[in-house]
Amino acid sequence: MPERAPIFPPAGSAPLPAGPGGPAGSPPGGDGPGGSGGPGDSGDPGDSGEGPGGSDTEAADTDGASATPPPKRKGSFWKELPLLLVIAIVLALLIKTFLVQAFSIPSESMENTIKVGDRVLVNKFTPWFGAEPERGQVVVFHDPGNWLSEAPKQSDNAIVRGLQKGMSWVGLMPSASEKDLIKRVIGVGGDRVQCCDAQGRLMVNGKPLDESSYLKKGVAPSTMQFDVTIPKGRIWLMGDNRDNSSDSRYHQGEPGGGTVDKDQVIGRAFTVVWPLSRIHGLGVPGTFDQPGLGMGAVGSAPLAAGFAGALPIVLWRRRRRADGPPERVATRDPSGAPPA
Fold it and tell me: What is the 3-state secondary structure (H, E, C) of the chain?
C-alpha cells in the first residue's frame, strides 16, 4: 500500500503562508485561484529579478556606486619646475627692490657694532612711504662722490663672479660691485653738529651725546674739530669706529660740505644675520631720544604736519557743537500713540 502523507510537516520546516494566489501550502508559481497569469505566477517581474526590484538590477546599481573615476594624471615635476623658478625669481626681485636686501660689510668703519664679513639686512620698504633717515639709525647709502677710494674686491674665479652677480641681481647675495657705504646718522636737516664739548663729546643742537654704547672701545668720539649746520634734505654720517672711518668729517671741502642727500640712502640696516654667532638688532641708541635733541627743522616737520591736518577737524567739530543738534520734529505714530 502507498504511504500516507504526514499530517504534520517534519520538524524544522514551516508551512507556507497563504497568499493571494492560493491556499497555504501552494507552491510558488502554482496554479491557484489567480491562474497562470495571476499574482502567484512565477513570471512576475519581482520574482524573476528582471524588473526594477530584481536582484540583477540591484547588483548593477551597487557596481555603479562603487566604481570611481580614474585619477587625473598629475603634471610632471620637471614640467612644473621652470614655472616655480620663474615665480621664485620674480618674488626675490620684488623683495629686493621694495622690501629687504642683504649687504656685506667690507671695512672696519662700523666696528664693533658691525664687523668685517658680517651680513646685514636693510629695510627698503618704509622709504616708499616717505620715511626719512633719523638720528641714531644705521643706514646704507650710495657713494655720494669718491668716498670709496677703490672699488670693492671681486673673486678671481670667473664662475664664482658669475654666480655672485646672478644671485646678487635677485637679492640672494650681497652685491660685490656696487659702491655702497654703511654709517650711523648723527644729524639730519636743520641740526647743528659740533665736536666737541669740554668732556670731548659730540653735540647735536647743544645736547651732548653719550656714545659709549656703540663706539668702539678706546676710540674717541672725534679727534677732528667741526661745527656744521646740516642743510635741509641732507644728513651727517659717522662710523662707530671713528679712528678708521672716512665719514662726513673728511669730506667737508666737497659739494654738500660732508653731508649726504637723503635720497642717496638705500635703506636702514636693522639686523645682523650672519654669522649666526653675531645675530643682533641694530636699534637706535637711547642717547638720541633725550629731550631737546630733536629741535631741527626736519625733526619738527611731522609734528607740524600733524597739527596742520588736525586743525580743520577741530574747527569743524567746534562749529557743529555751536550750531547745536538739529531741531526735532514731532510726528504722530500710525498706531495713534502721542508723539514722544
Answer: CCCCCCCCCCCCCCCCCCECCECCCCCCCCCCCCCCCCCCCCCCHHHHCCCCCCHHHHHHHHHHHHCCCCCCCCCCHHHHHHHHHHHHHHHHHHHHHHHEEEEECCCCCCCCCCCCCCEEEEECCHHHHCCCCCCCCEEEEECCCCCCCCCCCCCCCHHHHHHHHHHHHCCCCCCCCCCEEEEEEEECCCCEEEECCCCCCEEECCEECCCCCCCCCCCCCCCCCEEEECCCCEEEEECCCHHHCCCHHHHCCCCCCCCEEHHHEEEEEEEEEECHHHCEECCCCHHHHCCCCCCCHHHHHHHHHHHHHHHHHHHHHHHHHHHCCCCCCCCCCCCCCCCC
